[in-house]
Design a protein that fits this description.
Layout (H helix, E strand, L loop, with lengths): L5 H5 L8 H53 L5 H8 L4 E4 L12 H14 L6 E4 L7 E6 L5 E6 L10 H36 L16 H48 L4 H28 L6 E3 L1 H14 L4 E4 L6 E3 L1 H19 L2 E8 L3 E8 L33 H11 L3 E6 L5 E8 L1
Parallel strand pairs: 6-8
Antiparallel strand pairs: 1-4, 2-3, 3-4, 5-7, 8-9, 9-11, 10-11
Helix pairs in contact: 2-4, 2-5, 6-7, 7-10, 9-10
């Protein structure tokens, strides 16, 4: 298995993006490298210990075998050769094969060990035997002058058992599973925290995190839950203040309208009436926007979107507006009907106000979503301001000014209601002029 090198880890394109994948990769690579190092050290120590034992064994066994052959009559020696042979060496009655001195470390060590065991009694020479495998022969002469050769094939170590690789693979798999489980347990609270933060919408009704688990996790969960409560308290308090101000403003505005109505007709009379209407509209829109920030109390239910669109179309046509509808949904939809009607109404009103006509287009887009677009042929919006107009009290002077009677809150309210419905709202300039307001709902 190839592990990720320093260059790969330093390259952001190859480095995993999620914390879970990064921690799992680091732990798994570290444990795998540690296991490989441990295995190498164990095998090295095992081979060295085995080699030391084998050298002592060869020294004693060869010395005993040579002494036995030296004492046997020459006629009986061939019968004993198979009995004295071992897995790594055998005896040959003859001069053997000549060659150069052993250059391999293992062969030189075996030759030296045999020389130490029998070199005091016999004159010993050793040479390597050419071939693919490492092999050497030790030559000597018995007391009667008969040549004897010890043909040795050194063993570098004890062969591995067949079950050892399977055991190591199983151990690595267990380590990998433990790494995955440990990292998953460590990163799950972060995933839950991110999901709770994502669901914390305008309604401030995000799921509460379980305040259990390790102390650090429980503390973070308590802090997040407390933060949700504080935000909800702050927003509720400000909504109550705004509602109270709105209620208190209604009385003086009503008195002022009564007084203006009692005034003589004139230019100032008309201007005061217009200013009072703007003040009243601004107060109402401000309260509506604050309520959308606090969240819609409407419960989602299954509705017939085609019936809702047909009803709105009929209302606009009855009022004499140029509104058309293209396409059908053809299926039920789970949504907040009043919020959906308010959003579509704001978009259609804007299209009529700045384009003179509105076209509603229904289109089923991939991934199980539904797009409802409101199209107009008005002046459009500069590309750099397509997002800015969703902010409260923002108007584009070239197309949306006080002469239109707008407060700059219509699109802001539509965006907040859209977020409360877990939908998406965006604006796009049309080719040839005009604007498209696209509402994307989950089906």
């Amino acid at each position: 298995m190839k592990t990720a090198g320093p260059a790969a880890l330093a390259n952001p394109a190859r480095w995993p993006r999620s914390l879970f994948a990064r921690l799992a990769l680091i732990l798994f690579v570290g444990l795998a490298a540690s296991q490989a190092a441990s295995f190498w050290l164990t095998m090295t120590e095992r081979n060295q210990a085995t080699m030391n034992v084998m050298m002592g064994y060869i020294e004693r066994e060869v010395a005993s075998s040579v002494a036995l052959l030296d004492r046997l009559p020459a006629a009986e020696r061939p019968d004993w050769l198979p009995r004295l042979a071992r897995r790594s060496y055998r005896f040959v009655l003859g001069p053997g094969i000549a060659g150069a001195a052993p250059d391999a470390t293992l062969s030189a060590r075996v030759a030296a060990s045999i020389a130490e065991g029998i070199g005091t009694s016999y004159e010993v020479t050793a040479n390597a035997v050419p071939g693919e495998r490492e092999r050497l022969q030790v030559h000597l002469r018995l007391s009667d002058g008969a040549p004897l050769t010890i043909d040795i094939t050194p063993m570098p170590g004890i062969p591995l058992s067949r079950w050892l690789p399977l055991l190591l693979a199983l151990q690595l798999a267990v380590l990998g599973a433990c790494c995955w489980y440990a990292v998953r347990q460590a990163t799950r609270p972060l995933h839950q925290l991110a999901r709770a933060a994502d669901t914390l919408g305008p309604d401030l009704k995000a799921e509460r995190l379980p305040e259990d688990g390790p102390s650090e996790v429980a503390r973070a969960a308590r802090a997040f839950n407390a933060m949700q409560d504080r935000i909800a308290s702050y927003v509720t308090e400000r909504l109550q203040i705004l509602a109270a101000i709105s209620h208190d403003l209604q009385t003086p505005i009503t008195r002022m309208r009564l007084r203006v109505d009692l005034m003589d007709e004139g230019p100032q009379h008309v201007k005061l009436q217009q200013d009072l209407r703007e003040m009243e509209t601004l107060v109402k829109e401000g309260v509506a926007y604050a309520r959308t920030l606090h969240g819609a109390a409407e419960v989602p239910c299954r509705i017939d979107p085609d019936a809702l669109l047909d009803s709105m179309l009929a209302d606009y046509l009855d009022a004499g507006h140029d509104v058309s509808l293209q396409g059908k949904v053809g299926a039920a939809l789970v949504a907040r009907p009043q919020a959906l009607r308010r959003v579509l109404g704001n978009l259609i009103d804007n299209a009529l106000k700045f384009g003179g006509a509105a076209e509603i287009a229904v289109d089923a887009v991939p991934a199980g979503t539904l797009a409802i677009s409101v199209l107009d042929r008005g002046p459009g919006i500069p590309a750099e301001s397509l997002e800015a107009v969703f902010e409260p009290f923002v108007r584009i002077e070239t197309s949306r000014n006080r002469n239109t009677g707008g407060t700059g809150l219509g699109l802001a309210i539509a965006r907040q209601l859209t977020l409360a419905m877990d939908a998406g709202l965006s604006l796009h300039n049309r080719a040839g002029g005009g604007l498209e307001a696209r509402l994307v709902l989950k089906r």
